[in-house]
Amino acid sequence: MTKTPSSIRILVLTLLGLMVLPGCLEANRISVIIYDANRDMFRHLRLYLDIASDETQGAKDYDRLIQIYKLRGSFVPTPVPLLSSAFDIKRRGIVNGEAGVLVVANHTYDRVKLNSPPLRTSSNEQTALALDDIAIQPGRFFRSERGTLCYYHQTEIPGKLVDQLLAEAWVSHIREPLRNMIAKEQERRRSGGSVKPLKMIADEAERRLRDGRALLSGDRGLDSETDKPKKEFTPAAAFDDTSLRLLLAKAKSDEIGFRREKNVLKVQCELSASDVSQLRRLWAFLQEDEKRHPKDYKVEEVPAVILLRGMSVESVPIRSMPGTVRVTVRLDLQHSGNSDVVKLLRAEVYKKDKGTVGARKHARRAAAVSEVLKRGVVVSQTARTINQVIDSFRQGTLK
User: Fold this and answer.
1) Smallest Cα–Cα separation from 88: which of 296, 298, 290, 294?
2) Quick one: which of 261, 84, 75, 87 has its CA closest to 155?
3) Burial code of 283-293, b = ≥16 C-beta within 10 A, e = fewer?
4) Strands 324-332 and 258-261, how do they pair?
């Protein structure tokens, strides 16, 4: 049996930062983000759909849900959706380890996670960010058109705060790991370590497409050639020496690696012309693979696919450094939550809910409304479609 090339998958998933975590509460999530240019403000709607216990904790799950609900006036979902996809289709762990912060004071917060206890993962953390600048509009539980339990939550995040978050993310979570990864890779090469360049990865992808094989599905634990456990692979191992040198210089400089222009995130770096050419090849192959094997892009990879569809990439040769290219990536931070997205989400979630298993899932979802009502929390009697909620949010009338 031919195994999926580990380097293609690990390169793609590592660069896109995907994560899957289990949990006790289940839900689907949609994030809609609208940029208000007049106020330089990001309006964020988070929707949790089909909330239910996965039955491992039962009543305790709903007690926990009410505990979270009562704290909603200070809850801010982690602002990762500003940099990720319009929706996730995974149904585990509200959702994939859904997390956020509880604002305690202007510069103090607690970290929280919603999927499983304990609720607070840290307390009284300090930040230079002015958290009082975030406007929190607590939401409500409501019934979907299928009778399932749903919840919406709104926040407004000023552009200046987003800029501070981006700077903090670069300094605290990207720059140093990037330095270390590149330095480790350079040392490995100096010690005689082999290199699997981007051209080899792209060629491998091209062969698989030519043979009618998928790029992302298959056995994730074995090497494609030896059938032995895969060796650790990092994206740095695929770039040539010129690109690594340029990236390391970027990581060592005081300059922030990305910046915001209104609702657009702009990332700029320098790479070798050869690596840029191969990255373009690889991305074209992934786009073709998605057309041929769409199911492979409907679980873990779907957020990344939608994210990358919203990107524009420009590359300009650097005259003062022959053989190098300045790459500029632009990403719109808005996600409009259009009706096609909602249709795809609902179709994907419910298409497998058939037979006994499907009936059991539906029973769990239907029971969630009564469990919340039993605990003295109001759930709107009138069923609302997801598009109705999103439209009200767009119009500024969602209360």
Assistant:
1) 298
2) 75
3) bebbeebbeeb
4) unpaired
For the chain, where are the alpha helices, taking DSSP H only? Answer: 6-16, 59-70, 93-96, 159-169, 175-190, 198-210, 241-252, 273-292, 302-309, 339-350, 355-374, 386-395
Tokens (6 digits) for 386: 């997801």
> How confident is the model over 99-134, as pLDDT tens digits?
788 999 999 988 887 766 777 877 888 888 899 999
Q: What is the mean pLDDT of residues 200-228?
A: 71
Helix (H/G/I), strand (E/B), else coil: 236: helix
Q: Which two tokens stand for residue 303?
A: 């957020």
Nearest by Cα to 179 from 114, 254, 115, 111: 254
Q: What is the mean pLDDT of the chain?
A: 78
Is pLDDT of 47 > 80?
yes
Side-by-side strand order, sheet with 311-317: 258-261, 264-272, 324-332, 311-317
**C-beta of residue 68 within 8 angstroms of C-beta of residue 139:** no
Provide mean pLDDT across the span 207-218.
Answer: 82
Coil, helix or strand at residue 257: coil
DSSP secondary structure string, 362-395? HHHHHHHHHHHHHTT--B-SS---HHHHHHHHHH
What are the distances in angstroms from CA 9 to CA 12, 220, 233, 395, 397? 5, 9, 10, 40, 43
Tell me, yes or no, if the pTM score tops 0.85: no
- Crossing angle between the packed helical segments 386-395 and 339-350, to the nearest 10 degrees: 150
Q: SS3 for 337? A: coil
pLDDT tens, 130-167?
999 999 999 999 998 888 899 999 999 999 999 998 88
Whole-angstrom distance, CA of residue 305 vs CA of residue 313: 15
**Letter for the amino acid at 156?**
E
Residues 190, 50: Cα–Cα separation, whole Å: 53
Omega of the bond leading into 342 within 30 degrees of 0 (cis)? no
